[in-house]
Amino acid sequence: MRHDMQKEPLFSVQDLRVAFLRNGEYFEAVRGISLHVDHGEVLGIVGESGSGKSVGMLSAIGLQPKLARVQGSARFKGQELVGMSRRELRTLRGSRIAMIFQDPLSSLNPVMTVGAQIAETILLHNPHMSKRGAMERAVELLALVAIPQPDRRVTQFPHEFSGGMRQRVMIAMAVANDPDLLIADEPTTALDVTVQAQIMDVLTSLRKRLNLGLILITHDLGVLAGHADRVAVVYSGEVVEQANVDALFAEPSHPYTRGLIASIPDMSIETDRLFSIEGAPPPLGKLPGGCAFHPRCPQVHPICRTLAPQLRNFGDHSAACHFARIPTGSAA
Ligand SMILES: Nc1ncnc2c1ncn2[C@@H]1O[C@H](COP(=O)(O)OP(=O)(O)OP(=O)(O)O)[C@@H](O)[C@H]1O
Ligand SMILES: [Mg+2]
How far is CA 24 from CA 21, 27, 71, 250, in A? Predict the structure, then answer.
């Protein structure tokens, strides 16, 4: 998708850095991430555990962990969020920006009906609405996330719902106040593969119906195929590749992205061994010199050990590797 330079995107993050204090020293878990998403667009953020996906996106909307230092910029509809007051941020998050947290299944209240929980979310931001009105809206929302018999389901408790159904309830609550931006952190991790695909369908159908900007955070690049428009690949707190989803799968230009693609299980091939990228990402504060990926890179060259590669643009495709394969589909 062509990015209109005249118009500011719905949500954009510029050189975002998040650091934690350890033994009197700050260590960056997020090391200058830039990305953007527009209305009706799905941005996938993918990377291994600990790469800074959650901390980065939470910090961008003012939900950084205590004692974290946040630098850079995160703009939503032209407003700067970094440094905004907690009160203003809370108002924005309840209405215009919604978040589905990692491990959301445990955040439903077991002793309240599903309908009452959705209604509570609605009433919090619409204090003048009647309780009955909020319950009617809860039924509509359950229908929106494709829960069958929503008028019956609305009076049930979370334990009467399957994992996939509970995740739909979380999505219904997230969109209850008609947000512009929805950030879903690992929305399908706890679910089996078939249910994962259904949840991704629900989410991506909402971005069309509600004209949402949607950010999908995942460690599984496979779930983004067919669902994201663009993908940002994150390694050790940095974006190492960003591209249109089809271009990323067709011509991945960073060795880390190629590793992630190779580790996606292929359902059509029966095998008991799955490729995985050797080694593990460096822990916080233990970054190697040069390119952060070099100790695990199958194509490592001497320069990679000493010089950190900058993110370079090849048209709409960008990659941070000295030896990035220039995509043939790019203008550069
Ligand atoms: N409150 C905190 N205090 C100190 N360090 C933290 C804190 N929260 C996260 N970190 C560190 O920041 C880094 C990024 O963590 P983050 O949770 O963003 O990773 P992630 O990409 O979301 O991983 P996962 O896929 O496991 O959810 C990790 O090294 C983590 O240990
Ligand atoms: Mg996370």
Answer: 6, 10, 18, 45
325 lines ligand 1 (CB under 6 A): no
**How many whole angstroms separate alpha carbon 299 and alpha carbon 96?**
44
Both structure tokens of 68: 């974290």
Kindly give the number of the ligand 1 atom that is closest to the alpha carbon of 217: 22
Of the ligands numbered here, which is closest to the C-alpha atom of 56?
Answer: 1
Q: Per residue in 82-132, pLDDT tens?
A: 999 999 999 998 889 999 988 766 779 999 999 999 999 999 889 999 999
Q: Please tell me the distance between residue 43's alpha carbon and the centre of ligand 2 in angstroms.
A: 16
What's the rounded Cα separation, in Å, for the pair 159 and 9?
Answer: 40
pLDDT in tens, 82-95: 999 999 999 998 88
Find the length of the chain. Answer: 332
From the CB of 50, is ligand 1 less than 6 Å away? yes
Mutation test of ligand 1: which of 27, 30, 54 has the most ligand atoms closer than 8 Å to its C-beta?
54
Q: What are the structure tokens assigned to 26, written together?
A: 């700050």
Residue 221 amino acid letter: L
Question: Which atom of ligand 1 lies closest to the CA of 51?
Answer: 21
Distance, CA of 37 to CA of 77 (rounded, Å): 11
With beta carbons less than 8 A apart as the criterion, state whether 65 and 29 touch: no
Nearest residue to 283 (alpha-carbon basis) of 57, 101, 34, 22:
22
pLDDT, tens digit, for every residue of 233-268? Answer: 999 999 999 999 999 999 999 999 999 999 887 755
Distance 55 CA to ligand 2 centre (A): 7
Residue 271 pLDDT level (bands cut at 50, 70, 90): low
SS3 of 26-84: EEEEEEEEEEEECCCCEEEEECCCCCCHHHHHHHHCCCCCCCCEEEEEEEECCEECCCC
Sign, CA dihedral 115-120-122-127, equals positive
